Amino acid sequence: MEERFVPLAEVRDILKRIQKERGELTYEQRIALKHAEAFAKLPLEKVRDLMKELSENIEKLEERHVCKIADLLPTHEDDLKTIFAKERIALSEDEMKKILEIVSKYLE
After folding, report:
1. What's the predicted TM-score (pTM) here?
2. How large is the angle between the packed helices 63-72 and 44-57, nearest 10 degrees?
3. Is the pLDDT of residue 106 over 90?
4. What is the sign, positive or negative, of the torsion defined by CA atoms of 85, 87, 90, 94?
5. Quick check: 5 and 67 in contact, CB under 8 A?
6. Which of 95, 103, 92, 68 is CA-nearest to residue 82?
7. Which end of the chain is more exposed for a tag (fewer CB within 10 A), N or C?
8. pLDDT in tens, 53-101
9. What is d(CA 6, CA 70) in angstroms, rounded to the nearest whole number?
10. Which residues contact 8 (CB under 8 A, 6 or more apart)?
11. Three-class SS string for the chain?
């Protein structure tokens, strides 16, 4: 079984598909779906486009960073600094501005 990072929008879509197929979700799946519906702010297609653009434009970002940015959709440099506070990656001012610029395009 393959492990990978997925954004909340994808979790939401996976759980909705499972619910439709099976008719019922487990308790944990219902809680996860409720959380994903509350906090996934963009449709999955937009999230995938955002993640692709981030990955292509900011080489330092790993898959987990891209997912976290796509989930949280930071709008200020302080938001980005919080996301990367415990990471060993140091983003330059230009990289942070580029990330925020890319994210802002998808919030319109």
Report:
1. 0.89
2. 130
3. yes
4. negative
5. yes
6. 68
7. N
8. 999 999 999 999 999 999 999 999 999 999 999 988 889 999 999 999 9
9. 10
10. 35, 36, 39, 40, 71
11. CCCCCCCHHHHHHHHHHHHHHHCCCCHHHHHHHHHHHHHCCCCHHHHHHHHHHHHHHCCCCCHHHHHHHHHHCCCCHHHHHHHCCCCCCCCCHHHHHHHHHHHHHHHC
The number of beta carbons lying within 10 Å of the beta carbon of residue 51 is: 22
pLDDT score for 2: 86
Q: Are 40 and 9 in contact (CB under 8 A)?
A: yes
CA 49/CA 83 separation, integer angstroms: 20
The token pair at 31 is 């809680």
> In one letter, which amino acid is 42?
L
For 13, the token pair is 């879509």
